[in-house]
Amino acid sequence: MTKKVAILISGGGSNMVKLVESMVGDHPARPVLVGSNDPQAGGLKKAAEMGVPTFAVDHRPFKGDREGFEAELNAKLEAADPDIICLAGFMRVLTESFVRKWEGRMLNIHPSLLPKYKGLHTHQRALEAGDKEAGCTVHMVTPALDDGPILGQARVPVQPDDTPETLAARVLVQEHRLYPAVLERFAQGKTDPVYLD
Ligand code: GRF
């Protein structure tokens, strides 16, 4: 049975584009919705151009009322009734009650080799630590930030002259390989982690 996938973004949505592009042919999943907390998110236009229904719930009017924002977000998601939610460059922290509702069906991609560098500025922190390699992780979303079971990782070398921007660009290329690979496996019920070289 084809799995229905909703994707949440906050910006350009390059990971979302790769996920949508991957769900074709005999792939076990199909995109049913792309949503954002920013009505101006560039990825919303890209999703619409690919024929995927979109929505935006602007988080700013809810400032401080995280539950109110999430109630709106949930209403949009429930209407699409997804089997899987992919957070892809989604930059809002979700409350425990929201996560509990979707736990086991919600994935996230994080631009570090978790458990290292949870949170923000991952590439800068890896460079400051003098790491020789970096990468990205797809994990199940649990209430603790960037902390759920790992479903896949991809590694890149750190170059001596790297800046956070050059490292981010190298990691992003791997994100675009890893997330589609993990989603296809997850849609088939596979949760043993995949490590891309
Ligand atoms: C990128 O920095 C990526 O590492 C992280 O979110 C940011 C935007 O991704 N996952 P996208 O282009 O919006 O998918």
How does this structure look, described?
- The structure is a single chain.
- This protein has 197 residues and is α/β, with parallel strands linked by helices.
- It contains six helices and eight strands; from the N terminus they run βαβαβαβαβαββαβ.
- The protein has helices at residues 14-22, 42-49, 66-80, 96-102, 122-128, 164-187, and strands spanning 3-9, 29-36, 54-56, 84-87, 106-110, 133-140, 150-157, 194-196.
- The protein has an eight-stranded mixed sheet with strand order 3-2-1-4-5-6-7-8, with helices on both faces.
- α1 (14-22) links the parallel β1 (3-9) and β2.
- α1 runs parallel beside α6 (164-187) and α5 packs across α6 (164-187).
- It is globular.
- The mean pLDDT is 97.
- Residues 9, 11-16, 88-89, 109, 111, 168, 172, 175 line the site of 5-O-phosphono-beta-D-ribofuranosylamine.
CATH architecture of the largest domain: 3-Layer(aba) Sandwich
Query: Rg to the nearest angstrom?
Result: 16 Å
Relative strand content: 15-25%
Uncertain regions: pLDDT < 50 for 5+ in a row?
none
| Average predicted local confidence, pLDDT | 97
CATH class of the largest domain: Alpha Beta
Please give the largest β-sheet.
Answer: 8 strands, mixed
Number of strands: 8
Alpha carbon gap, first and last residue: 31 Å
Binding site for N(1)-(5-phospho-beta-D-ribosyl)glycinamide: 13-15
InterPro entries: Formyl_transf_N (IPR002376), Formyl_transf_N_sf (IPR036477), GART (IPR004607)
Active site: 110 (proton donor)
Keywords: Purine biosynthesis, Transferase
